[in-house]
From TrEMBL, chains A, B, C, D, E, F:
GO MF annotation terms: hydrolase activity, acting on carbon-nitrogen (but not peptide) bonds, in linear amides
InterPro entries recorded: GlcNAc_PI_deacetylase-related, LmbE-like_dom_sf
Organism placement in taxonomy: Bacteria, Pseudomonadati, Pseudomonadota, Betaproteobacteria, Burkholderiales
Pfam families noted in UniProt: PIG-L (PF02585)
SUPFAM superfamilies linked: LmbE-like
Protein name: PIG-L domain-containing protein
Amino acid sequence: MADKAMLVVSAHSADFVWRAGGAIALHKKNGYRAKVVCLSFGERGESAKLWRKGEMTIEKVKAARREEAERAADILGAEVEFFDLGDYPLRVSDEALMRLVDVYRELQPAFVLSHSQKDPYNFDHPLAMHVAQEARIIAQAEGQNPGQKVVGAPPVYAFEPHQTEQCEWIPNTFLDITEVWETKRRAIECMAGQEHLWDYYTRVALQRGVQAKRNIGITATRDIQYAEGYQRITPTVTGDLS
Amino acid sequence: MADKAMLVVSAHSADFVWRAGGAIALHKKNGYRAKVVCLSFGERGESAKLWRKGEMTIEKVKAARREEAERAADILGAEVEFFDLGDYPLRVSDEALMRLVDVYRELQPAFVLSHSQKDPYNFDHPLAMHVAQEARIIAQAEGQNPGQKVVGAPPVYAFEPHQTEQCEWIPNTFLDITEVWETKRRAIECMAGQEHLWDYYTRVALQRGVQAKRNIGITATRDIQYAEGYQRITPTVTGDLS
Amino acid sequence: MADKAMLVVSAHSADFVWRAGGAIALHKKNGYRAKVVCLSFGERGESAKLWRKGEMTIEKVKAARREEAERAADILGAEVEFFDLGDYPLRVSDEALMRLVDVYRELQPAFVLSHSQKDPYNFDHPLAMHVAQEARIIAQAEGQNPGQKVVGAPPVYAFEPHQTEQCEWIPNTFLDITEVWETKRRAIECMAGQEHLWDYYTRVALQRGVQAKRNIGITATRDIQYAEGYQRITPTVTGDLS
Amino acid sequence: MADKAMLVVSAHSADFVWRAGGAIALHKKNGYRAKVVCLSFGERGESAKLWRKGEMTIEKVKAARREEAERAADILGAEVEFFDLGDYPLRVSDEALMRLVDVYRELQPAFVLSHSQKDPYNFDHPLAMHVAQEARIIAQAEGQNPGQKVVGAPPVYAFEPHQTEQCEWIPNTFLDITEVWETKRRAIECMAGQEHLWDYYTRVALQRGVQAKRNIGITATRDIQYAEGYQRITPTVTGDLS
Amino acid sequence: MADKAMLVVSAHSADFVWRAGGAIALHKKNGYRAKVVCLSFGERGESAKLWRKGEMTIEKVKAARREEAERAADILGAEVEFFDLGDYPLRVSDEALMRLVDVYRELQPAFVLSHSQKDPYNFDHPLAMHVAQEARIIAQAEGQNPGQKVVGAPPVYAFEPHQTEQCEWIPNTFLDITEVWETKRRAIECMAGQEHLWDYYTRVALQRGVQAKRNIGITATRDIQYAEGYQRITPTVTGDLS
Amino acid sequence: MADKAMLVVSAHSADFVWRAGGAIALHKKNGYRAKVVCLSFGERGESAKLWRKGEMTIEKVKAARREEAERAADILGAEVEFFDLGDYPLRVSDEALMRLVDVYRELQPAFVLSHSQKDPYNFDHPLAMHVAQEARIIAQAEGQNPGQKVVGAPPVYAFEPHQTEQCEWIPNTFLDITEVWETKRRAIECMAGQEHLWDYYTRVALQRGVQAKRNIGITATRDIQYAEGYQRITPTVTGDLS
């Protein structure tokens, strides 16, 4: 299993921590290679605390955000690559899209995580998911860099957005992250600029933990305390329905 | 795994064959106990060929349908229980509902299969699913026959309806039934009264097979020829996203 | 074409006038037999003006509503049958359902009109549509009164509810009723107890007329002034797409 | 404002506490009369802890649940009426429906709170909402107990279900309950049999508080810490859009 | 209240009149500043009558449309700014988007009105709404022109499209415009090129008036004759549910 | 009828054969002019077999695909025009959009066929439909090439995608193609590079044939063996509902 890999496509540099940090830490622990692509640093729209410090420039904010993200990725065990495409609004050129196709081809991920397909509070998020899906489709095409190994059909999941119901996001998959929770919390605490969200996302993990338990039934012996919710977008192919 | 069980709730006596015959044969082969509850025989609404023979009574039609269903269940490896509630329209009293609750409690199924939640061509079908879900909820209640072992949270799947798109049924799960296809086809051929559907459902299995292959990717080595589509209604709880 | 027939299933005794009066008058003119089934008189919930007169009884209200409906049906050219099942709430027993099945079998309608499938302002309306569909399905069953001629697959349409958007009703079919508008208006004027709705439904017909014109394009020569909107529920089978 | 009233229709005896306790305490404080109708005690399906004590009977469980609910209602400032219709499954006869109509007529509520319209985990919940809506419609009918004062069009809200996304429940209204949070928490602590939910619903209130703040904008001066989410089902009529 | 403001983002130069003219006049009367941004003049796609005059150029049409819109805005009491981005198709560059962000920052609107999120008859309309939302999000970002005052979270409403049901637009808010109806009608009559729509939108206002009355209940004393329908997209935060 | 025309907008050069080949052959036979616009050749994403041959270049693949498409169009009786815009990803400039507008103006189609509005497996497909609709809207505008004849309101249909349910595509129209099936099959067999799909789409036609029969009812005398499914996007305007 050592050669399995996972890919996270994150609109801003902190999204992968709040929303998929448990999945990264858990799969890393289980032998996966984990790679995160941050399309932007969230420098304009998700760095309010930094801007309020005064004497800030866009480059200083980006540097601070990069450092935080790298430390968090390090704790979780992920490689991180920054595309630096700008935010609020994020715009993705075809050149950037093709760079993401190359990531798919090189990584050959077993599954892909990105944002919800709708988010009325944040238009960068659905765009990131759109790009994650489009790059996956192109990476499957035989005519794209012929000779290179095409990718298979890695399942695509939408991780949890901020206001789930407004985003019409429905978690059909719960990932038990109890055994890596401490790691995720440490990664979260790297996000110095968004300290108000630390407890918010701790509560999210606890609520999803309770719900995960309910969805395996009270008769189950497995003790889940923390979980992450995901919406699987692509169908499952299986040989057993239980 | 010998004590695992599966439950199929079928509105009419042939539905479980067309729509879940592969799942039954496959899980049976893999050590599951399989139980089918037929809420009715489909004696009024799905026995056109029998009625056209002339000199028919409702009892004769029911007997013929029962015999066909029993032979098919036998081939697939399932126990079958007939509730004989009538069809077109099917009506389910609370007494019948509680009989189904008892089946859940006794069987302790690992998963449950029933009809799509909507079917504008057949109102008996969504009712069967509704009842399958309601009985599951009651079987989870501690106050129902206190002392009896409650059921956990077995996943619920909707099997494939006749005109899928009109039923707003979306297959998010494909089950590879290639290795038991011959068994399913033999069970299908028990349905003498609906011979026109034999090839129809053979083509369904072939199409779902092609789609299942596509959903694992062209790089996959597994060769799927026949599949069944299912819509999983309840969330998955897992420790691995690939 | 003289033997074609149409069926309208109306929850209350005035619904068929406001919502399908144009369709009745037009098809009648074109040689159809038109039959209306009123499941109730709308005596409790849609007769406010009568109740305010004082000295009213439920029987007096029903008699007044029946008379109005009969006069309107007469103007439109429809037969009308009252099932008198009560309103607010309407309740439909299986016996009443089977009476409606008999209507289908006798009438052999070429198409069926009833209410929208959802109506948060009026629960009698979606129930009427549900019953209209269920009776149609049973009337198709060979085991229902074997020997009787079964019905084919008459298309089902939902006519226009009062607050269309709240009812999630979408008109995919516009019927040009310009040539029978005067007849419809006269039928509307039979509804003495709901005079405030006369102009409301005249405006509805004008708006739908404008929309119908837009949907054939400004290059079309046909001059539509009044129309009725319908949501076709069942698929069309055709040999020409224009 | 002393004569304004609010109505809560609760499927089981604890639902109104978790889901609408803040709304009750807040409106009570602001001069409303608050009335809760509990259709059942939740004696079979939501009293697991009591049943596990052993030596239990259905009557003992109902008595314990009633006592808890009465104490909680007392703390919140609500009158509570128990219809005792049974749970898992809840069944509502037309007689019970008419009893609820009488409550509407007597109370003349300014708004109504009940469950989400869908809940795959609990079929009693959507039924309670259905009944709350149907009773409201009947209470508006002039022919229902003619002479009695009919009700107007009180807005209907769905309060928060357990697994919101699975229930397709979307909060379009946030109620700031910061000033009555301590009262709600005390009412919650009356629910001795469901202690595991105390912290769960405290976290719900904190998350909704964060979201409410976000929806008034970071420039707002109002400090919201706790909130309840509601889905308003009926339209607003207003003279100002801000 | 003198410093409150409202913003209307209109795809073509007449949209704000038909669809939000009442809201503008009413809020203006109540002390709001009202600003309209017209992204285009509708010169190609909504000026049929002008083009049929012959001897027309795109500049002449734009001038005529501008003059009409300015007169209408003047009657309603609104400032109007033309972005002149072209229509059929409308295209919005990031530069134009940022110009709209500046409008938000300068105006600090209490609420925003724009088109429905879907419109199969007119792709310029949903684009205008998309841009209105995206500009609002960017105007909230601290990193956009740091030091400038960011905007809060002004509610966003979709005003009424031409064929509402096809646009999946659902009015969850009715605005009573009875007291400013005459003003709106005068503004409508400035639209010389679309005289066929004058009566159409008068009927729309009457229908929405009837519906608004129904949604406050027949027991209400407020007499509503004309109304505008809006779909509120963003949640309400409140301290009272009635 | 000789001057009627139909338009097919196909994302890749083979789509029109699998998905609309029957409609083309049938309408051609009935006197229509049929025109197909292929936005790309599908050279990168739908030519796997060609690429695997080795020694391939993009130009060779395009030439091979063009030849296949021309032969198929010839058999079906259609003119075909290639826009050569590239695939995986397809990108449509405003210049290309206007070229399609010109096709509309010249052809004056009686109806238009294109892809489903959603397709998670293929983002080129929904883009093609979007462009087909946007060009239609622009072709209706009086200000587009003033003096040229504008188009009316030709109905728009979405033809069948590969995995229908995932695309949320619902066939509301079945076209009986029994009489031209042999022609369609011959056109299909021109697609040498996708031989694995020949039988797949033959089975699709058989399944739709069975469903079409069911939707006219078992009492109908018309014998349908092969059909194509379409989702009509635009409303029907009619004078008869049967």
